[in-house]
Automatic annotation (TrEMBL), chains A, B, C, D:
The keyword Membrane does not apply. Transmembrane segments: none annotated. InterPro entries: Haem_Oase-like_multi-hlx (IPR016084), PqqC-like (IPR039068). It comes from Corallococcus exercitus. SUPFAM superfamilies: Heme oxygenase-like. Pfam families: Haem_oxygenas_2. Keywords: Oxidoreductase. It comes from the Bacteria. This is Iron-containing redox enzyme family protein. One of its GO terms (molecular function) is oxidoreductase activity.
Length: 240, 240, 240, 240
C-alpha cells in the first residue's frame, strides 16, 4: 500500500467492508469449517478446484468486456485489456492441481454447479452493463484474497500433504495478485469520484464475495452427496 | 519476414491477393489520385484524418471482442487482448494531427461519414461472429499498409509542408505496426489450418480494404461538397 | 393440461421437481412465513413489489434475446418474440400497485437489492448463452406460479384490505399466465429431445426459483432494516 | 397513407429522399438494367434470391435487438418484438422460389457475397447501437419497396415465365408489407422528435438502400463470373 492510496477515505471504508464480509464468511462457511478442522479430503479440494476452474475461465473475458464499453476513459480501458491478457489461461492451473493429486490430464470436467453459474452470470452482468467501474469491486477482493485465505491454504496443504507444485493455482496467484491488488486499489482510488461510484464498487465487492461463499458451500453439499452416494456427479474423484 | 512464415504458401497467396487489391485501390481511388497529383489540401487531409479517428476509435474494442469469444485458444486470446491494449487511444493521434494544422484541440468533430460507419459496422461484425481468425484479415493489411501508402504520405507531407510532429498518426503507426505486422503474419501462418480459415481471413482482408477505399473516396466527395458550398459539414475546416 | 403434454414423462418429472422446490420455498422462506402469519404490512408488500418491478422490467428483453440467437428453430423463435411482446410493460403494474396503496405515481424507485440483481443477471445469462431451450425452465415455474402463491396473495389481500384493482400485477398475470403456462409446457414437451435438454431446463427452473426465494428473503431483511431504522433505503414507504 | 402521417413535413422530406435514392438506383444499377432489358436468367435471379435469403435471415433478429435495448419506450419496444415475430422465417420463401425453378429443396446454399455481409453487418450495427429509432430508416424503404420494384418483378416474371407460386417471397411480402409500411410511417412520424432523430433515420434509410444496390450489382458480377467460368461458386445454378 502506498501513501497515495492510504490517504483515500473511500478506499479505507471499502477495505473495512471487505474485512467484515470475509469475517462473516470465514466464521460461517461450512466449506471453510471443514478445512479449518483438518477434515478436507482430496475429493473435496478437487471439487472446489473444479468450480474455481469454471469461473476463472471467464475472468479474462468479462474483464475485457469492461474495456470494450469504456471508450471514454483510455487509462481504465488499457488497464482492463492488460488485466484481461494476464488472466488468460489461469483456469488451467486449477485443472493441473486437480490432476496432480492423481488424475490423468484430460479427465472429464463436471458441469459447473448452479452456484458457480450464478457467480459467472453475475460477473458478466457487472461487466457488460452498469457502472464500468463496478467490476473493480470484484477484483478488489479477489486479487487480495490471499491475505484472508492463506491460513486455509496452509491447512489444505498440510492436511493433504501437498507440495507447492501441486498448488500452482494459489501459489502463482498469490504472487501475481499482490501486484494486481495494488493496481486495483490505485485504480479505484483514482477513478471513483462520486458516492455512487464508491457504492457501485462496494456492492459488487460484497455481492460477488457472497456468491463465492455460496459456491464454496455448494461444493460442500456436492461433496456430501458424493460421499453418501446420492449423486454420481464427479464420482471418479472418489478414487483420489 | 522470418523463414517460418516465408515457407507458408497460404500466406504468400494472401500477400499476393493483398497486393492486387492495393494495386486496384492505388490506381483507381479518387482520393489517392488527388494526393498523387499534389492537389491535397489541409482541409481534405483533415477530413480524411477525422474519418480515420472515427474508425480507429473502435479498433481496440472490436479487437478485444475477438478475444472475449475465442476461449478455446489461449494463445490467440492473449494476442487479441495484448493487441487491443496497444491500440487504445491511437485515434487521439489522428485528432492531434488535425489540430496541429491550425485548430484548437477540442474542435467539434463531425459525425462519421456513412462509408466510415459501414467500415466500423463490418469490423465489429467480423469480430463478434463467424470465424474468430477472420479479423486477422483486417490486421493483415492494416498493420502493413505503410508499405503501400508511404509514397502517398510523403506526398501529403511535401504538398502541405508538414513536419513529422504534425503526422504523428502515421509516423507512430509505421513504427509500431512493423512489429505488429510480423506478429499478425505469424499468427495467421500458425492458426489457419483449413482452406476455410484461409478464405475467411482473405475475405475479410479484401472486404475491409475495399470498404476503406470507399471511405477514402467518400472523403473526396465530402470535400468537393464543402468546397462547392453544397454542405456545411465540417465547414470550419475551410479556415485551414 | 392437454393429453399431448400429459403423456410426456420428462414433463411430469419436471413438474414433480418444481413442486419439490416450491414446497421447500413455501415451508422455509421467511418472507412467506410473514405473509402466512398475517403479519405483512403495506411497506413490506411494497418492498416486494418494487423488486418485482426490477426483475420484471428485464423479462421481455431477455426473452427476446433467446429468439435473437435461436435462428435454426423458427417455431421457437416466433414463440420467443411473441412472448417478449406480451411481456412488455408488465413491470408497470407492479409500480401501479405500490402507488395504489397511497403513493404518488412517480415516487422514487429504490435501486434493486443485490439478490434481485443476481436474479436478473442469471436470467440474462441463461438467455444469451448455453442451450436456448433452458430459459423455458424459468417460464415453466414463473408462468404457473399462481397455483402455488394464490393462498399467499389471498392472505396479503385480506391482511392489507386491498381491492383487486390494487393487485393488478398478480390478478392480470394469473389470467395471462394460465394461457402462457400451457404454451410453455407444450413447447418444452415438443422441443426437449435429449436428457441434456431436460436437465438444462430443470436446472434453470430450480436455480431461478431459488434465486427468487433469496430475493424474497432479502426483501424481508430490507424491511427489518427499515423498521429498525438501520437503513434509509425506501424510507418513504414507512408512511404507508 | 392516413391524414395523420401525411401532415408530417419530416416524413414528406424522408419520402422525397427515398425517391431520390431509388431513382439513382433504378437508373444506374447494372442488375436492374439487366432485368429491364429482359435479359435476366433463372441463374441470375436465383443468385439474387440467395443473397436475399442471406440478409433476410437476420431481419427478425436485428429487429428484435432494437427492442432489447429500447426499454424506455414500451410502445416502440412492442412494435419491435411484434415486427420481429412477423419476420421470422421469411427467408425460407426466397429459398422456396429458387427451388421452384428446378432445384431440389436442400440444395447447397453458397456463402453470402461480401456486399451482402456488409449489408448484414450494417443492419446489426444500426440495431445494437446508436439511436434506437434509426433502424426504422431501413424498414422505411424495405417495407415499401414494392412501389419501386413492382415493374422489375413483373419483368422478371415475364422474362422467366414464372407463376406467382414461384415468386412467393415477393408476392407474400408485397401484401404483408403494405400494412407494415403504414405502421412504420406512423411510428417514424410519432417517435422522431428532434432533427437528429430525423437525420438518423434518413441516414440509415439511404445507407442501407445503397448497400442493397451494391449487393444487387455484386450479384451481377458473380453471375458474370459464373457464366464466364471464372468462378465455381454456385455452379449448380447453371443447370437451371
Amino acid at each position: 500500500m502506498t501513501d497515495t492510496t492510504k490517504a483515500v477515505p473511500g478506499l479505507e471504508a471499502l477495505k473495512h467492508r471487505r474485512s467484515q464480509v470475509w469475517d462473516e464468511l470465514l466464521a460461517q462457511s461450512r466449506f471453510v469449517r471443514t478445512v479449518q478442522q483438518g477434515e478436507v479430503t482430496k475429493a473435496l479440494y478437487a471439487l472446489y478446484l473444479i468450480e474455481t476452474y469454471h469461473y476463472t475461465r471467464h475472468n479474462a473475458r468479462n474483464q475485457a468486456l469492461v474495456g470494450v464499453r469504456c471508450d471514454d476513459d483510455r487509462h481504465y480501458q488499457k488497464f482492463c485489456f492488460n488485466h484481461a491478457e494476464e488472466e488468460v489461461g489461469h483456469e488451467q492451473m486449477a485443472l493441473h492441481d486437480v490432476a496432480s493429486m492423481g488424475l490423468q490430464p484430460g479427465f472429464p470436467i463436471p458441469r459447473a454447479l448452479p452456484a458457480t453459474e450464478v457467480l459467472i452470470a453475475y460477473l458478466y452482468w457487472v461487466s457488460y452493463q452498469g457502472n464500468p467501474l463496478q467490476r473493480l469491486g470484484y477484483s478488489f477482493w479477489a486479487e487480495s484474497c490471499y491475505d484472508y485465505i492463506r491460513p486455509l491454504l496452509g491447512k489444505v496443504q498440510k492436511t493433504l500433504g501437498l507440495t507447492p507444485a501441486q498448488m500452482t493455482f494459489f501459489v502463482a496467484h498469490s504472487d501475481i495478485d499482490a501486484e494486481h491488488s495494488q493496481a486495483v486499489d490505485e485504480m479505484i482510488a483514482k477513478k471513483c469520484k462520486t458516492p455512487e461510484d464508491w457504492e457501485d464498487v462496494a456492492q459488487v465487492m460484497e455481492t460477488s464475495l457472497r456468491l463465492t461463499w455460496r459456491m464454496m458451500d455448494e461444493v460442500s453439499d456436492a461433496y456430501a452427496q458424493l460421499v453418501d452416494g446420492r449423486s454420481e456427479r464427479a464420482a471418479f474423484l472418489k478414487a483420489l
